[in-house]
Amino acid sequence: MKMIYSRKQSQKHHELLKTFLPGGKYSSYAIKDSSSPIVFCRGKGSRLWDVDGNEYLDFNLKSGSAFLGHAHDEFSSVLGDFIGAPFFADHYSNELAACRYLRQYIPCCEAVRFGLSGTEIVLNAVRLARAYTHRSKIIRFYGHYHGNADPLIYSNKVLIERPFLRPFVTEGAIDSHIENDNLLLPWNDIEAVEKAFQDYTEQIAAVIMEPVAVNGGGIYPKEGYLERIRELCTNNNAILIFDEIITGIRMGLGGAQSVLKVVPDLCVLGKAVGGGIPVSVLCGKMDIMNAYESGRVIQAGTFNGYTLGLTAIGSVFQIIEKHADNYYQNMERVMKNICSVLFESAKKVGFPVSVQGPLTCMSIHCTESELKSVDEFDGKVRFMDGVLRECFIGHGILNAYTSRIYANINLTEDDVEFFGKRITGALEDASLLLS
Ligand code: PMP
Q1: What is the pLDDT of residues 75-94, one digit of tens each?
Q2: Which residues of 123-145 are buried (b: 16+ CB within 10 A; e: fewer)?
Q3: What does the record give under GO molecular function (predicted)?
Q4: Final residue of a domain: which of 304, 322, 340?
Q5: Ligand 1 centroid, distance to 275 Cα (angstroms)
Q6: Cα(154) to centroid(ligand 1), Å
């Protein structure tokens, strides 16, 4: 093994932390990883530094949130104005900027509501769909992730034998009624969706999906698939919800819906839209969102519409809008160059890799050919991708879980060079570990 980074200080910290925090990590998904966590102390642009003095090219970006990179001057200065400011109880003067930007750029956005986390806002979207339609059943898809809440994480018994397949089974912890209301279908199988609408006529409140199955390995919808689901929802008076917690802002200011040209009834945004500040958004068609006005459905939370979060959204849009074409083109160019360097090294080392999904939230897989389904990803490939990630980290390339790499607007050719110097060692380690 050629791991070049020693993480003694991080390990010491982790040993202490474990005495307080069962599992020693903040996410159950991270506990599955074998490595000890890294303790960071500084960040700028695309780079992070840990307490042992190691430098990392950050493709994790706090699970994709820090889309402007770290310590972005303009963003930090705007946010700084609100740190130590009064905690406004009701409304404050510049909250309209966030609302205006969302309506301007997100195709389905006629009205908005705000939350703090992705999970919370997805739950609100599902509740709204149920209240609006007076129906209870929700169609979801294997491999798509919608957050850490019982109705979103539940899966059926088949999955117990395939523990890698998301949504995860949390046996014994989930109310039994959830089983009846969740229709879990395979992604990209239009007949399955058509059949569900036939079998449960006038019972389906909503179809919820990641419009690109990023959590399922980066699998795009097949041609015509989204359009047909759109049509089925319209014809059956069901609500189409896009979970754009990852793809929103990342695939362009209008998210996946503007790139794929299918407009949902509701969509949720989180992560990148707040630039690293915890905030989430529910956007949607006015007649559905008006259910809040009539009081037929409740959405509430101490920190909803929190000053810092709404300021962050306004600032993220403002910063990106000024140079939007440049930022997106530059990220795509740099990510393509990262791919070329990756493939070159993989060829040299004789290690199988492929990449797929949108360039700004791309998955690196330990396979030679593109994965066609979420099933192909789950299991062995997901496991190997996790090992690959550990090897990347040992060489200063910080990927997100499994082995996803998130772009940020600061990426330059320097980052490609940094990546190029380290990738061969990382792949050699992976090839030793996985042989
Ligand atoms: N939806 C998607 C598509 C996600 O990727 C995530 C988080 N990874 C969530 C929802 C949940 O968001 P949060 O972790 O902020 O609750």
Answers
A1: 999 999 888 777 777 888 77
A2: bbbbbbbbbbbebebbbbbbbbb
A3: pyridoxal phosphate binding; transaminase activity
A4: 322
A5: 15
A6: 15
**What is the dihedral sign for C-alpha 154, 156, 160, 166?**
negative
- 361 Cβ neighbours under 8 A, 6+ residues apart: 64, 214, 218, 246, 247, 250, 251, 404, 405, 406, 407
pLDDT tens digits for range 181-236: 888 899 999 999 999 999 999 999 999 999 999 999 999 999 999 999 999 999 99
The amino acid occupying position 232 is L
Q: Specify the residue with its C-alpha closest to ligand 1, atom 12.
A: 118
Answer whether 0.90 is exceeded by the pTM.
yes
- Kindly state if the Cβ of 146 falls inside 6 Å of ligand 1: yes
Of 284, 300, 322, the position where a domain reaches its end is 322
Q: What is the domain-level CATH number for residue 216? A: 3.40.640.10
The best mutation among 67, 119, 212, 247 to test binding of ligand 1, ranked by most ligand atoms within 8 Å of the C-beta, falls on: 119
State the Cα–Cα distance between residues 237 and 231, nearest whole angstrom: 10
Whether the CB of 141 sits within 6 Å of ligand 1: no
Active centre residues (catalytic): 145, 243, 271
Q: Which atom of ligand 1 is nearest to the CA of 144?
A: 3
Please work out whether the CB of residue 276 comes within 6 Å of at least one atom of ligand 1. no
Contact 345, 322 (CB under 8 A): no
Question: What digits encode the pLDDT tens for the residues 131-163?
Answer: 999 999 999 998 888 988 877 776 543 444 444
Residue 264 pLDDT exceeds 90: yes
